[in-house]
């Protein structure tokens, strides 16, 4: 697979670009550079692959357009299994600012997940910040659910090839890192819309959330954010995290905005949310470990159903980075746990 590189040698060329766009406003070295005039550059740190490349045996994938106006599209994976399968709507990671449903690492991970967990997966290529700050990604998630609903109700001939594989009464929102944040906030929006989510997205039935290392933050620092040592090329450091939030939150917002910090107003605020059962996957060596544990404890304290899974000895995004000798056995564990969760 093509492993994500955070080597500074991939840094974009400076000089004429600085002059042309008025200087650099924000930068995460090797990942993204934002200029004062709003111009954004993202180096090609991961190869973009077609939907036919490097798929798990027995898995078929196709790309579908969801909204031509916003450029929203998704990559769909379905295994060669008999009968109707659970539908997983997946959001990739990348701090809301980088990443693609066509990245080779997600193509590999999700085709593997579709095969191992026996599910159909829609991997969404949502709009990125800072060109499209939050809540754009959340809106893309909701629009995708409504699109699936419309396809199901219309009995679309065009999309019959995947609809026939889906059990629309068994839908899960999933994602890793920023994608897990999107999955949670999409579910949150469904649960605070003034009516039951089953009414809004019927015939779809949202059965659960699969949140892999959910990307949350806050103005106050947790112990793991301050003290867990990260390797030089780690996928997520505290500095990188802070920059992603500055680029993705609405202008003027800080890290205690509820989209970043769901506990900013106290755990009691979660009590009235109509949230589905959650499975939260936490990495032991991740700076987000303590924040993820606090989130799980808060959900549990107000009576929400949450299953907490700790992956020992690995860090943030190990499931796509393969950056530890323990990555592959932990990925196998994760696949097995997700399969159990969506088939309970």
Describe the overall structure.
- Belongs to the 'GDXG' lipolytic enzyme family.
- With 344 residues, this protein is α/β, with parallel strands linked by helices.
- Helices cover 32% and strands 21% of the residues.
- It folds into two domains: 1-45, no CATH class; 46-342, 3-Layer(aba) Sandwich (Rossmann fold).
- The strands form two sheets. The protein has an eight-stranded mixed β-sheet, sandwiched between helices. A three-stranded antiparallel β-sheet has the order 1-2-3, covered by helices on one side.
- Strand 10, helix 9 (289-301) and strand 11 (306-311) form a beta-alpha-beta unit.
- Helix 2 (104-117) crosses helix 11 (327-342) and helix 3 crosses helix 5 (178-191).
- The longest helix has 19 residues, at 136-154.
- The chain starts with 15 loop residues before the first helix and ends with a helix.
Tell me briefly what this model is.
The active site is at 177. Belongs to the 'GDXG' lipolytic enzyme family. The protein has 344 residues and is of the alpha/beta class.
């Amino acid at each position: 697979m093509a492993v994500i590189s955070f080597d500074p040698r991939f840094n974009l060329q400076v000089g004429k670009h600085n002059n042309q766009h008025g200087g650099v406003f924000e930068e995460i070295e090797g990942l993204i550079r934002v200029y004062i005039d709003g111009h954004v550059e993202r180096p090609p740190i991961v190869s973009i692959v077609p939907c036919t490349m490097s798929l798990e045996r027995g898995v078929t994938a196709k790309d579908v357009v969801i909204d031509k106006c916003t450029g929203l599209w998704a990559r769909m994976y379905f295994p060669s299994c008999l009968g109707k399968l659970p539908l997983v709507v997946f959001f990739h990671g990348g701090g809301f600012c980088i990443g693609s449903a066509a990245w080779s690492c997600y193509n590999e991970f999700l085709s593997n997940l579709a095969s191992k967990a026996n599910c159909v997966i829609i991997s969404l290529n949502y709009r990125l910040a800072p060109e499209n700050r939050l809540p754009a990604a959340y809106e893309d998630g909701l629009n995708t659910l409504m699109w699936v609903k419309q396809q199901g109700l219309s009995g679309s001939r065009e999309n019959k090839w995947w609809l026939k594989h889906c059990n629309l009464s068994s839908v899960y929102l999933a994602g890793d890192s920023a994608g897990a944040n999107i999955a949670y906030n999409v579910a949150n929006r469904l649960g605070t819309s003034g009516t039951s989510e089953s009414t809004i997205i019927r015939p779809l039935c949202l059965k659960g959330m699969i949140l892999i290392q959910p990307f949350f933050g806050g103005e106050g620092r947790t112990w793991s954010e301050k003290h867990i040592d990260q390797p030089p090329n780690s996928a997520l450091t505290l500095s990188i995290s802070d920059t992603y939030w500055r680029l993705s939150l609405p202008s003027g917002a800080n890290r205690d905005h509820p989209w970043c910090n769901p506990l900013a107003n106290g755990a009691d605020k979660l009590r009235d949310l109509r949230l589905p059962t959650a499975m939260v996957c936490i990495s032991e060596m991740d700076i987000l470990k303590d924040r993820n544990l606090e989130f799980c404890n808060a959900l549990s304290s107000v009576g929400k159903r949450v299953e907490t899974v700790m992956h020992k000895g690995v860090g943030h995004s190990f499931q796509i980075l393969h950056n530890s000798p323990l990555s592959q056995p932990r990925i196998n564990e994760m696949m097995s746990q997700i399969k159990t969760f969506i088939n309970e």
